[in-house]
From TrEMBL:
Superkingdom in the source lineage: Eukaryota
Organism placement in taxonomy: Eukaryota, Viridiplantae, Streptophyta, Embryophyta, Tracheophyta
Entry keyword annotation includes Ubl conjugation: no
Protein name: Uncharacterized protein
Record organism: Hibiscus sabdariffa (roselle)
Pfam family, one: Methyltransf_7
Amino acid sequence: MAMASANALCMNPGDKDISYANHSSLQKNTLLKIRPFLEDTITDMLNKILPVSFIKVADLGCASGPNSFFPTFEIVDTITRVCQQSHRESPELQVFLNDLPHNDFNTVFRSIPSFHERLKKDKRGLRVPCFIVGVPGSFHERLFPTRSMHFVHSSNCLHWLSKVPRGVENNKGNIYMSKSSSVDVFNAYSKQFQMDFSKFLCSRSEEMIEGGQMLLTLLGRNITDPTNKDGFPLWDLLTKSLFDLVAKGLVQEVDVDSFNIPFYTPCQKEVREIIEKERMEIFEVNWDFEDNDYNTNFVFEKNRSGQNVAKTVRAVIESMLVNHFGEIIIDDLFIRYAHHVGSIVWDLVFIVLLTLVSMGIGSL
Protein backbone atom coordinates (compact mmCIF):
# COMPACT_ATOMS: atom_id res chain seq x y z
CA MET A 1 0.00 0.00 0.00
CA ALA A 2 1.38 3.42 -0.93
CA MET A 3 1.86 5.69 2.08
CA ALA A 4 2.51 9.37 2.60
CA SER A 5 6.26 9.87 2.75
CA ALA A 6 7.95 11.91 5.46
CA ASN A 7 10.67 12.63 2.91
CA ALA A 8 8.09 14.60 0.90
CA LEU A 9 7.57 17.00 3.80
CA CYS A 10 8.97 20.46 3.22
CA MET A 11 7.53 23.88 3.89
CA ASN A 12 6.24 25.65 0.78
CA PRO A 13 9.11 27.62 -0.82
CA GLY A 14 9.08 31.36 -1.40
CA ASP A 15 7.89 31.06 -5.02
CA LYS A 16 4.62 29.34 -4.05
CA ASP A 17 1.36 31.29 -3.84
CA ILE A 18 0.92 30.04 -0.28
CA SER A 19 4.54 30.09 0.89
CA TYR A 20 5.65 29.23 4.39
CA ALA A 21 7.59 32.48 4.55
CA ASN A 22 4.35 34.45 4.12
CA HIS A 23 2.14 32.18 6.24
CA SER A 24 4.13 31.34 9.36
CA SER A 25 2.75 33.94 11.77
CA LEU A 26 1.33 31.15 13.92
CA GLN A 27 4.81 29.71 14.41
CA LYS A 28 6.08 33.22 15.16
CA ASN A 29 3.52 33.49 17.97
CA THR A 30 5.01 30.35 19.51
CA LEU A 31 8.52 31.77 19.26
CA LEU A 32 7.39 34.95 20.99
CA LYS A 33 5.91 32.94 23.84
CA ILE A 34 9.09 30.96 24.42
CA ARG A 35 11.44 33.96 24.12
CA PRO A 36 11.79 34.37 27.93
CA PHE A 37 12.73 30.67 28.23
CA LEU A 38 15.26 31.05 25.42
CA GLU A 39 16.88 34.06 27.10
CA ASP A 40 17.00 32.33 30.50
CA THR A 41 18.50 29.16 29.03
CA ILE A 42 21.23 31.00 27.11
CA THR A 43 22.03 33.16 30.14
CA ASP A 44 22.32 30.11 32.38
CA MET A 45 24.60 28.36 29.87
CA LEU A 46 26.84 31.41 29.50
CA ASN A 47 27.23 31.80 33.25
CA LYS A 48 28.58 28.25 33.32
CA ILE A 49 30.90 28.26 30.31
CA LEU A 50 32.30 31.81 29.98
CA PRO A 51 34.93 32.76 29.10
CA VAL A 52 35.07 30.93 25.75
CA SER A 53 36.31 32.10 22.37
CA PHE A 54 33.38 30.65 20.37
CA ILE A 55 29.92 29.15 20.82
CA LYS A 56 28.27 26.71 18.43
CA VAL A 57 24.48 26.78 18.16
CA ALA A 58 22.07 24.68 16.10
CA ASP A 59 18.51 25.54 15.12
CA LEU A 60 16.92 22.29 14.02
CA GLY A 61 13.97 22.55 11.64
CA CYS A 62 14.70 26.15 10.64
CA ALA A 63 12.35 26.13 7.59
CA SER A 64 12.59 29.40 5.63
CA GLY A 65 11.33 32.94 5.90
CA PRO A 66 11.43 35.51 8.72
CA ASN A 67 11.22 32.90 11.50
CA SER A 68 14.47 31.24 10.42
CA PHE A 69 16.59 33.93 12.05
CA PHE A 70 14.35 34.83 14.99
CA PRO A 71 15.98 32.41 17.49
CA THR A 72 19.46 33.32 16.22
CA PHE A 73 18.84 37.03 16.79
CA GLU A 74 17.55 36.37 20.31
CA ILE A 75 20.60 34.23 21.07
CA VAL A 76 22.99 36.89 19.78
CA ASP A 77 21.12 39.55 21.75
CA THR A 78 21.36 37.55 24.98
CA ILE A 79 25.05 36.72 24.50
CA THR A 80 25.85 40.38 23.82
CA ARG A 81 23.95 41.58 26.88
CA VAL A 82 25.46 38.99 29.25
CA CYS A 83 28.98 39.71 28.00
CA GLN A 84 28.48 43.45 28.41
CA GLN A 85 27.25 43.00 31.96
CA SER A 86 30.27 40.87 32.83
CA HIS A 87 32.65 43.18 30.92
CA ARG A 88 33.71 40.41 28.56
CA GLU A 89 34.17 40.42 24.80
CA SER A 90 31.41 38.54 23.01
CA PRO A 91 32.59 35.13 21.77
CA GLU A 92 32.31 34.28 18.10
CA LEU A 93 29.06 32.55 17.28
CA GLN A 94 28.58 29.85 14.66
CA VAL A 95 24.94 29.05 13.91
CA PHE A 96 23.92 25.90 12.07
CA LEU A 97 20.51 26.16 10.41
CA ASN A 98 19.18 22.66 9.78
CA ASP A 99 16.24 21.26 7.87
CA LEU A 100 15.50 18.47 5.40
CA PRO A 101 17.35 18.68 2.05
CA HIS A 102 14.24 19.84 0.16
CA ASN A 103 13.89 22.89 2.41
CA ASP A 104 14.04 26.28 0.68
CA PHE A 105 17.62 27.02 1.74
CA ASN A 106 17.99 29.51 -1.12
CA THR A 107 15.56 31.85 0.63
CA VAL A 108 17.40 31.28 3.90
CA PHE A 109 20.77 32.15 2.38
CA ARG A 110 19.40 35.23 0.62
CA SER A 111 18.24 36.51 4.00
CA ILE A 112 21.69 36.36 5.62
CA PRO A 113 22.87 39.85 4.49
CA SER A 114 19.73 41.51 5.88
CA PHE A 115 20.17 39.56 9.12
CA HIS A 116 23.73 40.88 9.49
CA GLU A 117 22.54 44.40 8.71
CA ARG A 118 19.93 44.13 11.45
CA LEU A 119 22.60 42.97 13.88
CA LYS A 120 24.79 45.96 13.07
CA LYS A 121 21.89 48.37 13.41
CA ASP A 122 20.45 46.98 16.64
CA LYS A 123 23.83 46.51 18.29
CA ARG A 124 24.93 50.05 17.33
CA GLY A 125 28.14 48.88 15.74
CA LEU A 126 29.16 46.51 18.53
CA ARG A 127 31.19 43.57 17.33
CA VAL A 128 28.91 40.53 17.22
CA PRO A 129 30.71 37.91 15.10
CA CYS A 130 28.05 35.52 13.82
CA PHE A 131 28.66 32.95 11.09
CA ILE A 132 25.72 31.16 9.48
CA VAL A 133 25.92 27.64 8.06
CA GLY A 134 23.20 25.57 6.37
CA VAL A 135 23.01 21.91 7.35
CA PRO A 136 20.60 19.79 5.24
CA GLY A 137 19.62 16.50 6.82
CA SER A 138 17.22 14.78 9.21
CA PHE A 139 17.55 15.71 12.88
CA HIS A 140 16.60 12.12 13.68
CA GLU A 141 20.17 11.27 12.66
CA ARG A 142 23.62 12.60 13.60
CA LEU A 143 24.32 16.03 12.13
CA PHE A 144 27.45 17.35 13.91
CA PRO A 145 30.86 16.12 15.16
CA THR A 146 31.16 14.55 18.58
CA ARG A 147 31.19 17.02 21.53
CA SER A 148 31.05 20.07 19.30
CA MET A 149 27.75 21.86 20.11
CA HIS A 150 26.96 24.20 22.99
CA PHE A 151 23.26 24.86 22.46
CA VAL A 152 20.49 23.28 20.38
CA HIS A 153 17.11 24.87 19.69
CA SER A 154 14.11 23.39 17.91
CA SER A 155 10.61 24.83 17.63
CA ASN A 156 7.47 23.37 16.02
CA CYS A 157 9.30 20.38 14.54
CA LEU A 158 9.63 17.35 16.77
CA HIS A 159 5.99 16.35 16.40
CA TRP A 160 6.92 15.35 12.81
CA LEU A 161 7.93 11.71 12.67
CA SER A 162 10.77 10.25 10.61
CA LYS A 163 8.27 8.07 8.72
CA VAL A 164 4.67 6.91 8.71
CA PRO A 165 4.44 4.27 11.46
CA ARG A 166 4.16 0.62 10.53
CA GLY A 167 0.83 -0.87 11.50
CA VAL A 168 -1.49 1.90 10.30
CA GLU A 169 -2.43 0.23 7.01
CA ASN A 170 -5.88 -0.58 8.43
CA ASN A 171 -6.59 3.06 9.31
CA LYS A 172 -9.19 3.33 6.56
CA GLY A 173 -11.28 6.48 6.42
CA ASN A 174 -8.65 8.44 8.34
CA ILE A 175 -5.36 10.18 7.59
CA TYR A 176 -4.33 10.33 11.26
CA MET A 177 -5.50 8.96 14.61
CA SER A 178 -9.23 9.39 15.01
CA LYS A 179 -12.06 8.07 17.16
CA SER A 180 -12.69 5.39 14.52
CA SER A 181 -9.04 4.28 14.46
CA SER A 182 -8.11 0.96 16.05
CA VAL A 183 -5.97 0.58 19.15
CA ASP A 184 -3.20 -0.76 16.91
CA VAL A 185 -3.07 2.58 15.09
CA PHE A 186 -2.77 4.53 18.34
CA ASN A 187 -0.02 2.23 19.55
CA ALA A 188 1.84 2.45 16.24
CA TYR A 189 1.93 6.24 16.32
CA SER A 190 2.98 6.34 19.97
CA LYS A 191 5.73 3.76 19.42
CA GLN A 192 7.09 5.64 16.40
CA PHE A 193 7.26 8.88 18.39
CA GLN A 194 9.08 7.16 21.23
CA MET A 195 11.63 5.69 18.83
CA ASP A 196 12.13 8.95 16.93
CA PHE A 197 12.36 11.21 19.97
CA SER A 198 14.76 8.82 21.73
CA LYS A 199 16.93 8.66 18.62
CA PHE A 200 16.91 12.46 18.38
CA LEU A 201 18.08 12.79 21.99
CA CYS A 202 20.73 10.09 21.63
CA SER A 203 22.14 11.81 18.52
CA ARG A 204 22.28 15.16 20.29
CA SER A 205 23.87 13.64 23.42
CA GLU A 206 26.83 12.53 21.30
CA GLU A 207 27.16 15.90 19.60
CA MET A 208 26.95 18.27 22.57
CA ILE A 209 29.62 19.36 24.99
CA GLU A 210 29.25 18.44 28.63
CA GLY A 211 26.86 20.92 30.18
CA GLY A 212 25.38 21.93 26.83
CA GLN A 213 21.68 22.66 26.74
CA MET A 214 18.70 22.19 24.46
CA LEU A 215 15.40 24.04 24.30
CA LEU A 216 12.77 22.01 22.44
CA THR A 217 9.23 23.14 21.60
CA LEU A 218 6.71 20.78 20.04
CA LEU A 219 2.97 20.38 19.72
CA GLY A 220 1.39 18.13 22.31
CA ARG A 221 -1.79 17.46 24.20
CA ASN A 222 -2.93 17.97 27.79
CA ILE A 223 -4.46 14.53 28.30
CA THR A 224 -3.56 10.97 27.39
CA ASP A 225 -6.53 10.37 25.07
CA PRO A 226 -5.20 11.10 21.54
CA THR A 227 -8.71 11.46 20.10
CA ASN A 228 -9.59 14.38 22.37
CA LYS A 229 -9.75 17.80 20.69
CA ASP A 230 -6.25 18.50 22.07
CA GLY A 231 -4.91 15.67 19.87
CA PHE A 232 -5.06 17.39 16.49
CA PRO A 233 -8.61 17.95 15.23
CA LEU A 234 -7.41 19.80 12.13
CA TRP A 235 -6.39 16.50 10.55
CA ASP A 236 -9.96 15.22 11.01
CA LEU A 237 -11.16 18.29 9.12
CA LEU A 238 -8.63 17.65 6.36
CA THR A 239 -9.92 14.08 6.14
CA LYS A 240 -13.45 15.46 5.82
CA SER A 241 -12.29 17.81 3.05
CA LEU A 242 -10.65 14.94 1.15
CA PHE A 243 -13.83 12.90 1.31
CA ASP A 244 -15.73 15.91 -0.05
CA LEU A 245 -13.54 15.49 -3.13
CA VAL A 246 -14.11 11.73 -3.12
CA ALA A 247 -17.85 12.42 -3.31
CA LYS A 248 -17.23 14.64 -6.35
CA GLY A 249 -15.12 11.98 -8.05
CA LEU A 250 -11.96 14.12 -7.88
CA VAL A 251 -10.12 11.80 -5.49
CA GLN A 252 -10.14 8.02 -5.18
CA GLU A 253 -11.17 6.67 -1.77
CA VAL A 254 -8.33 4.16 -1.90
CA ASP A 255 -5.86 7.05 -2.14
CA VAL A 256 -7.29 8.62 1.01
CA ASP A 257 -7.14 5.26 2.79
CA SER A 258 -3.45 4.93 1.91
CA PHE A 259 -2.55 8.43 3.12
CA ASN A 260 -1.42 8.69 6.76
CA ILE A 261 0.43 11.67 8.15
CA PRO A 262 3.83 11.12 9.85
CA PHE A 263 2.93 13.31 12.80
CA TYR A 264 2.30 12.81 16.52
CA THR A 265 1.35 15.11 19.38
CA PRO A 266 2.53 13.45 22.61
CA CYS A 267 1.10 14.08 26.05
CA GLN A 268 3.32 15.36 28.82
CA LYS A 269 3.62 11.91 30.40
CA GLU A 270 5.02 10.40 27.19
CA VAL A 271 7.72 13.04 26.95
CA ARG A 272 8.63 12.73 30.63
CA GLU A 273 9.06 8.98 30.24
CA ILE A 274 11.82 9.69 27.72
CA ILE A 275 13.31 12.79 29.36
CA GLU A 276 13.53 12.44 33.12
CA LYS A 277 14.07 15.23 35.66
CA GLU A 278 14.05 18.01 33.11
CA ARG A 279 12.12 21.25 33.13
CA MET A 280 8.91 21.23 31.11
CA GLU A 281 6.31 23.93 30.50
CA ILE A 282 2.92 23.75 28.75
CA PHE A 283 1.01 26.62 27.16
CA GLU A 284 -1.72 27.14 24.59
CA VAL A 285 -1.66 29.03 21.30
CA ASN A 286 -4.69 29.82 19.14
CA TRP A 287 -4.67 28.29 15.67
CA ASP A 288 -5.78 31.58 14.12
CA PHE A 289 -2.51 33.52 14.23
CA GLU A 290 -4.39 36.83 14.43
CA ASP A 291 -5.93 35.76 17.75
CA ASN A 292 -2.87 36.26 19.94
CA ASP A 293 -1.79 38.09 23.08
CA TYR A 294 -0.47 41.06 21.08
CA ASN A 295 -3.52 41.71 18.89
CA THR A 296 -5.92 43.61 21.13
CA ASN A 297 -8.13 44.51 18.14
CA PHE A 298 -8.91 40.91 17.17
CA VAL A 299 -12.56 40.20 16.36
CA PHE A 300 -13.55 36.64 15.46
CA GLU A 301 -15.00 36.18 11.98
CA LYS A 302 -15.36 32.53 10.98
CA ASN A 303 -14.58 32.85 7.27
CA ARG A 304 -11.44 34.91 7.83
CA SER A 305 -10.27 32.68 10.69
CA GLY A 306 -10.93 29.55 8.64
CA GLN A 307 -8.86 30.95 5.78
CA ASN A 308 -6.04 31.96 8.14
CA VAL A 309 -5.77 28.46 9.59
CA ALA A 310 -6.14 26.82 6.17
CA LYS A 311 -3.29 28.88 4.69
CA THR A 312 -1.05 28.09 7.67
CA VAL A 313 -1.70 24.35 7.36
CA ARG A 314 -1.39 24.42 3.57
CA ALA A 315 2.03 26.10 3.71
CA VAL A 316 3.24 23.16 5.83
CA ILE A 317 1.49 20.08 4.41
CA GLU A 318 0.95 20.93 0.71
CA SER A 319 4.10 19.21 -0.54
CA MET A 320 3.07 15.92 1.05
CA LEU A 321 -0.45 16.15 -0.34
CA VAL A 322 0.82 16.94 -3.85
CA ASN A 323 3.23 14.02 -3.66
CA HIS A 324 0.35 11.64 -2.89
CA PHE A 325 -2.74 13.08 -4.62
CA GLY A 326 -1.29 15.36 -7.31
CA GLU A 327 -1.46 19.14 -7.59
CA ILE A 328 -4.76 19.58 -9.41
CA ILE A 329 -6.96 19.06 -6.32
CA ILE A 330 -5.08 21.34 -3.91
CA ASP A 331 -6.94 24.63 -4.40
CA ASP A 332 -10.36 22.97 -4.20
CA LEU A 333 -9.28 20.92 -1.19
CA PHE A 334 -8.24 23.95 0.85
CA ILE A 335 -11.31 25.98 -0.09
CA ARG A 336 -13.36 23.19 1.51
CA TYR A 337 -10.89 22.88 4.37
CA ALA A 338 -11.16 26.60 5.21
CA HIS A 339 -14.95 26.24 5.31
CA HIS A 340 -14.82 23.27 7.69
CA VAL A 341 -12.20 24.92 9.92
CA GLY A 342 -14.18 28.18 10.05
CA SER A 343 -17.13 26.38 11.61
CA ILE A 344 -15.13 25.37 14.72
CA VAL A 345 -11.99 27.55 14.73
CA TRP A 346 -13.22 29.57 17.71
CA ASP A 347 -12.63 26.47 19.84
CA LEU A 348 -9.27 25.49 18.34
CA VAL A 349 -6.06 25.95 20.27
CA PHE A 350 -2.97 23.83 20.16
CA ILE A 351 -0.96 22.70 23.14
CA VAL A 352 2.76 23.43 23.13
CA LEU A 353 5.23 21.40 25.18
CA LEU A 354 8.45 23.22 25.97
CA THR A 355 11.33 21.18 27.37
CA LEU A 356 14.73 22.26 28.65
CA VAL A 357 17.31 19.49 28.45
CA SER A 358 20.74 19.71 30.04
CA MET A 359 23.18 17.37 28.36
CA GLY A 360 26.20 15.72 29.93
CA ILE A 361 28.72 13.17 28.72
CA GLY A 362 27.18 9.74 28.95
CA SER A 363 23.64 11.06 29.25
CA LEU A 364 20.82 9.22 27.51
